[in-house]
Amino acid sequence: MSTTPSPSPASTAPGTGREPNAADRDWLALACELAALCPPSATAFSVGAVVVAADGTELARGYSRENDPHDHAEEGALAKVPAGDPRLATATIYSSLEPCARRASRPRPCARLIESAGLRRVVTAWTEPDTFVPDADGTGLLEAAGIPVLTLPDYTAAAQAPNRHLLG
Ligand SMILES: [Zn+2]
User: Fold this and answer.
1) Residues 103-160: tens digit of each pLDDT
2) Positive/negative CA dihedral, 67, 68, 69, 72
3) How far does the centroid of ligand 1 lie from the alpha carbon of residue 140, in Å?
4) Largest CB tally within 10 Å, which of 4, 22, 39, 95?
């Protein structure tokens, strides 16, 4: 693990471990803002996601149903990064909602897509409720794959805002 000092407040570089830095918070806030762009749905959450390289360069962003009614935010963002981009190995993905562990619409859940892409870290605002998928445990799946998942409860309300119609 690196022992370099924390980045300056202006840095956009993600943190490297389980402690969020200021940039992590800013990127997660952006992911929550992207969730508001999703076409509304009565059967799926609105989610935003951003993939950020270790040096703070944004690699891609996405949101639910961006191009297709079945699109997930993380899936859409990852699809925009060229396969084999070496920056993926040290990238962090920010998602307003915990990446899914299983899904009805497509064979590979976002947690597996993140694992396959080789990302090193996930930061999310909201643990998936049981609304659509019982015992959705994307965090457990990712952690089991050696990818730390940080959940920042300060942003849960922002992540839920575009989903209020789905929450009891
Ligand atoms: Zn998903």
Assistant:
1) 888 889 999 999 999 999 999 999 998 888 887 899 999 999 999 999 999 999 999 9
2) negative
3) 14
4) 95
Q: Distance between CA 166 and CA 162 in Å, rounded?
A: 9
Distance CA 78, CA 68 (A): 15
For residue 100, the CA-to-ligand 1 centroid distance in Å is: 4
Provide the CATH number for the domain formed by 24-163 in this structure.
3.40.140.10
108 CA distance to ligand 1 centroid (A)? Answer: 8
Domain limits, the chain: 24-163
The H or E element containing residue 121 is strand 121-124
Q: 21-59, pLDDT tens digit by residue?
A: 999 999 999 999 999 999 999 999 999 999 999 999 999
Question: Are the C-beta atoms of residues 113 and 142 closer than 8 Å to each other?
Answer: no
